[in-house]
UniProtKB/TrEMBL annotation, chains A, B, C:
Compartment(s) where it occurs, according to its Swiss-Prot or TrEMBL record: Cell membrane; Membrane
SUPFAM superfamilies xrefs: Ammonium transporter
UniProt similarity note: Belongs to the ammonia transporter channel (TC 1.A.11.2) family.
Membrane topology type: Multi-pass membrane protein
Protein's name in the database: Ammonium transporter
Amino acid sequence: MNTTATEAYVNEAISNLTATLTEKDTELEGSIGAIGGLGDVLWLLLGAYMVFFMQAGFALLEAGGVSAKNTKNILLKNILDACLGGMVWWAVGYPFAYGTGGASPNAFIGGANFFMYKGTTSMNDSDGSAPSGYFYAGWMFQWAFAAAAATIVSGAVAERCNFMAYLIYTTIITAFIYPVVVHWGWSSEGWLSAFKAKAGDDSEEDWSYDPYLGGNGFIDFAGSGIVHMTGGGAALMGAIFLGPRTGRFNADGTVSDLHRGHNAVLQALGVFILWFGWYGFNPVSTLAFSMMDIAARVAVTTTLSACAGGCTTLLIHIACGNVPDVGPALNGILAGLVGITAPCVVVEPWAAAFIGFVAAFVYYGSSKMLLKLKIDDVLEASPVHFFCGAWGCLSVGFFATDIYVNNGVNGAYAADKDNGDSGNYGAFYGGGGEQLGTQIVGVLAIAAWTCGTSALMFFGLSKAGVLRVSPEDEQTGLDDSHHGGSAYDMQTMQANSGTVKVEAV
Amino acid sequence: MNTTATEAYVNEAISNLTATLTEKDTELEGSIGAIGGLGDVLWLLLGAYMVFFMQAGFALLEAGGVSAKNTKNILLKNILDACLGGMVWWAVGYPFAYGTGGASPNAFIGGANFFMYKGTTSMNDSDGSAPSGYFYAGWMFQWAFAAAAATIVSGAVAERCNFMAYLIYTTIITAFIYPVVVHWGWSSEGWLSAFKAKAGDDSEEDWSYDPYLGGNGFIDFAGSGIVHMTGGGAALMGAIFLGPRTGRFNADGTVSDLHRGHNAVLQALGVFILWFGWYGFNPVSTLAFSMMDIAARVAVTTTLSACAGGCTTLLIHIACGNVPDVGPALNGILAGLVGITAPCVVVEPWAAAFIGFVAAFVYYGSSKMLLKLKIDDVLEASPVHFFCGAWGCLSVGFFATDIYVNNGVNGAYAADKDNGDSGNYGAFYGGGGEQLGTQIVGVLAIAAWTCGTSALMFFGLSKAGVLRVSPEDEQTGLDDSHHGGSAYDMQTMQANSGTVKVEAV
Amino acid sequence: MNTTATEAYVNEAISNLTATLTEKDTELEGSIGAIGGLGDVLWLLLGAYMVFFMQAGFALLEAGGVSAKNTKNILLKNILDACLGGMVWWAVGYPFAYGTGGASPNAFIGGANFFMYKGTTSMNDSDGSAPSGYFYAGWMFQWAFAAAAATIVSGAVAERCNFMAYLIYTTIITAFIYPVVVHWGWSSEGWLSAFKAKAGDDSEEDWSYDPYLGGNGFIDFAGSGIVHMTGGGAALMGAIFLGPRTGRFNADGTVSDLHRGHNAVLQALGVFILWFGWYGFNPVSTLAFSMMDIAARVAVTTTLSACAGGCTTLLIHIACGNVPDVGPALNGILAGLVGITAPCVVVEPWAAAFIGFVAAFVYYGSSKMLLKLKIDDVLEASPVHFFCGAWGCLSVGFFATDIYVNNGVNGAYAADKDNGDSGNYGAFYGGGGEQLGTQIVGVLAIAAWTCGTSALMFFGLSKAGVLRVSPEDEQTGLDDSHHGGSAYDMQTMQANSGTVKVEAV
């Protein structure tokens, strides 16, 4: 080079151009990133809508599974699990579950954002002082989960639970019992959580994972334990403390067939809607548009487990000497769905089918066991949700693959893990027993918490004398005795039924 | 610098590179913009599907709420509101509503794109001469809205309206009455519209807003007024001109309980489906992928109002001395949903809950008022849709926040406003009374138009003697007398019902 | 220029900057492309969920359309079409349909990816040795299609088909009959396929189309032929080989009204759900986020055909001297939907309405013809799916526009076509008869294959004596005789029905 001036001129021109280029690139990256962010919100909203629609599925499944005389009672419970649940979740449920970010992280319970309050009403979450679209969408998604957890209980306590007792227990579950489990398992502070932020990382954007337990923490992707064991555990306690429906068990210990669902069509439609909604429950639990490829795998594992659960339960039912009935197929599908909810993102398709296969036995066996123990869980909520939920959590310890747990591109758990201890995976693949151990701890902790607090609650309601309706009201049916009359007006149905006449007495 | 040649060489190189860079950036920006545009279409399509699915919700809600003997009649009306409505909306409804862009803007009614005709069949809307994907998706979304508006009426006139009269009134509503209101309130030319384009801006892409009324125009985001008051107002006129069902009111002025819905399960499922569909109705009314963060907030306000409406109405019902029944909870949810439909995008979560709370009183009070006036609105379509719709529009005047109305990043109304008069917002926040005044004008205008034209229409049908079925047919039921027999064949249901036998006469 | 050194210095600086620029651009293009890829997966997943939900629609439509005494039987069939179908589709169905990419392309049947096995469990499809998100999402979408095809049959053979026979035929259809047709029509190797890859193009990403037949191959966009004719053809054969229900046809050849559906509400809800699901079926068959504009047009054509089909069938029914009944309107909607499924992407809106109009006549006429032939297709599955499916395929030959078939921006078929013979389009537009000829070949081939193999299958089942239940069981009803009792427990419904009492005998 012969002159510094030339060099300087060139350098300046290049420097100017580079600055322009960098600015433009940053702008483009921002635009691309913004689309990804909008995609995240879209994804969460769609998931929230689908999981919310599961309320209709639960309502139909439960309405079809009880006597016609208790139909309106169970419908009203499901309606209020969404409505009252929404109010409670807004006020205290979400804050206890996800209200984190305070100065001192709390591994047990959250404590911020009551009534969604974040300081301002603008939408710019960059400093955490205002709700973002992602915050609102996440609230929606979690509200739908909370309503699902709460509504599981109504199936177990159906046909004899006092309406006032229902209002109290569903409020306590949505306000406290369930949020605490969510905080444990899914928040950035929880003692079980796989997403626990490293100490000192206070921005949600930047944190790296540093779980308390093992390399990965408790892996319960979409809530076999956190949602289904919680709802199912409370359901089990409710059924126990209420005692069986009058006449449910004969003097000789056998089960009476006096009580059966009044409409199989409602049950089937309910399960189809639940299955549909589960595609919001599981795949959308990826929570990010960028994990869409993983969500597709989750949809597949969810499907195969549901299919295997349904087929297997029907086969078990037939093998036990029964005819092919609709009920076992439906509950088998739900057993498979509940079972795959924890492991859906960390297992291969074949393992998903196997998990559904085992879930069928878990459901069928636990259902029989409850009958032997004379526990009257009307909709079999605890066999489906509690016992299959536990199996789902444990199955992670056996079938989680190395690549899905520990490879950021393929898995939901590996990203940004920062504790240098991320080698755990399923025992079946030679990953050792540590993850299984963590899963056992999680299952026992959730079971102890949810059954303990629920037992206390139902014991209190029982002592207060408000838990169960009178034998007369039970006999009459809750709709006539408590809700203003039957869900059905059959007279006009009869009168118009062409070839049939019914004599009014 | 010592030589011009060097400088020129450098400049040329830089210039070439800059040109390449600019070309590439434009290309990348185009790719990013294209994704946003595809996202817009996806968003509108999903919304259209969800709002279309509300037809099933209306059908079930209405079927469950009438006598069994009129079930097929109400089903057929709902089916045709989608089918016949689709044909009419294609031919003239959409053109009257959104067929704008002509040489002389029309503030009252549109007049282009009949049968979707835009000149060519290719898909390139850049010069407006061909339908774009966004045009098609928008048509879908608006068709679903039109079907919803039309189908609201069938609930009010149920159990006694002649089928021929139904065909005529639903055609007129979908073809003319509703499209005119849409043109007023949502088109780029309407006299009420918040989205009225500035004179001279003829390309939809580029226009800036210059509403006739106040700084913002009439704010009715997703149609508390435009959809629900229109449907509900026509419903009210229909109920008035038809007169009450035979025996509905006793001689002493009290209400008979002779008429009641025949299936609460259908009603509950209907409301769950409607609630689900409302997440297409409200959040997707953002109409743009880029407003997804705002859509999430809309989902939250929609949810809180629905929850508050359901809980509050049930409480009012109990406070009035009744037992907790399913019906009030369901209609309360709908009241909250209708109420929040106008303000959903401009209010804070707490205000949404309050709007739902008030909507419960509006619904309950107007329902009682109609009974006092001996107006027999079978499904309470006008209390839910007309009166709560009006409340929703008015609530904007109280609770719209400054930031959501006037800040382009956070709101749907602020973008590109060009009239230098954008300071109006809710009176509660100190925004003065101008927006409330505009809202009152809008409510009165919609009420006058829809009730006036509907009254004329139903009066004509009544005079022509085709409005109401004969007392005999009403007694027999419309299914047997007009639609080929009952919706149900109960004989086989009975015969198979194990423990029960029915004697055929 | 005075010195080479200066020039070299400048060139090097420019070269470095260009390299940086190119690297950055590639990175940005990659980010943008990745979003598009994630959008593809999202799109397919949403479509899969919606099409899966159609199972609920089929279940309700069929349940409502049979006697109450056969309700659980038909529900169980629909449940198993999803569950058992999922297992079979996973094992062999998908592999036979889409398991391509082997060394020697097979125009008749696929043969890879059994049990989704692709060699590894990681998610990186770049070398085809591992399943990608798109692979998983595509599997989901195709599983839902397979379940739909299989479940069509159950409607035709309802109320008399042995459950064991059902298990066998549904397995054979899902495992073999349907996958072969899919391979023919939609795979990259099929002899009918419009998407047949040019020889030598083995990567799915890069292939250009080189169909065997004509310039475009057989155009059946979303499966009027491939899905509906296959399901409907098997349904027709099942109905023929089973023979009519006892008492269905009177001695004088007239049709008895002894058999009719027991619940019109279920039928209507079923059709609404099917219509909703069809928006997954047709628009999502674009299979790509980038074709969203086209998907919107598909949604419009789907809607207009459904609307026209419903209105027209009701008019035909009335013109034939009947009252306006719900059934014809519902089946007319389905006729329009089935008819538009093949041509939805290549026709203009007006043509879509016309196709639905004609489909109404095809449905109504073929339904009457079957009754004349004393073929008892309970749910009219073959008139709706087989005959209207054939009409849909043929309509492409008449109404496919040049621009939609041959213009890559507007159509699904034009992209990357490489055979220099892409001028075919609809005869109505002067496109000649070649496309119509191809469509006829496709229709005949599918009809021959599906009817031939199904006839063989049902003949075998009949000879083996397992096809039909005993007359006694048919009389009693399948629910009591085979499935453990009625779907309904009416006793409690009665007992609570306030004003009515039923005497137990």
